[in-house]
Amino acid sequence: MQSINKYTFKSKALFFLSLLSVLFFASCEDVVKLDLENGPTKLVVDAEIIWQKGTTGNVQVIKVSKTAPYYNNTTPKVSGAQVKVENSNGDIFTFNETEPGSYVCNNFVPVLNMEYTLSVTAEGQSFKAVEKLTSVAPIDRVEQEIHKDGVGDETIEIVYYFKDPADQTNYYLADFKSDFLLYPEYILTDDELYNGNEINNRFTNDDDKIVPGKTIDITHRGISKNFYNYMKLILEIYGGSPFSIPPGNIRGNIVNTTDPNNFAFGYFRLCEADKVSYLVK
Length: 281
What we know:
Layout: E1 4-7, H1 10-26, E2 43-52, E3 60-66, E4 82-87, E5 92-99, E6 102-105, E7 115-122, E8 125-134, E9 139-148, E10 154-163, E11 171-177, E12 185-190, E13 198-203, E14 215-223, H2 225-238, E15 255-256, E16 269-279
Parallel strand pairs: 2-16, 8-16
Antiparallel strand pairs: 1-12, 2-3, 3-6, 4-5, 4-7, 5-6, 7-8, 8-15, 9-10, 10-13, 11-12, 11-14, 14-16
């Protein structure tokens, strides 16, 4: 399917393994640590409002942290921030800090196609972002298939199907999670060539770890065109978990209203989602 892009962590892992192999054989005695330049510290706002079908969607979480040098093993959490979301009716939903850097709202009201404004005040800076809550076509069914490669080796593919609405342009983001994956695998989809038709997304694993008894968790989201373009750029550059470490200077929709040059990383998005757990047979 031309309009589907799939990204995994594996491409980056292989790159670093190759790099480490070169360094190892170049010097078996010296420990090599690359001297990487550290950029300015930036605020990171992980703000996904996700409304799972069949739930009220009232509990939502927004995380606020900071960028850190590459070799740091921890992500600096930002405490004491003020976080709220306001809808176009003027209703305000306050997110209270429940643990360092994690802000929770227990009375959020999701409404499809309604506009919401995120406001974050942290460390003397104010940030805002505006986005609409995007609907999603439900998952109709999940199947598994046997895929044979050119030499006859067989692997299991997990395939889910959904019917794309014909009266609108749609963009989708899916992630697949399982206990054998270090990071989720992501698929971006648009309906440019398949508007109004049934679309299927396929998940397979090159290491043959999709075996009977494994559970695959699928989250299928409706997303805006702007977020689609943002995710496409991030996944093309980074190829892995898109919210753990912001790659490069890719700017989202979060604007610093105190100092426009001191922008934050992250993207405020509101997605309706359908979730399915599939047990491999």
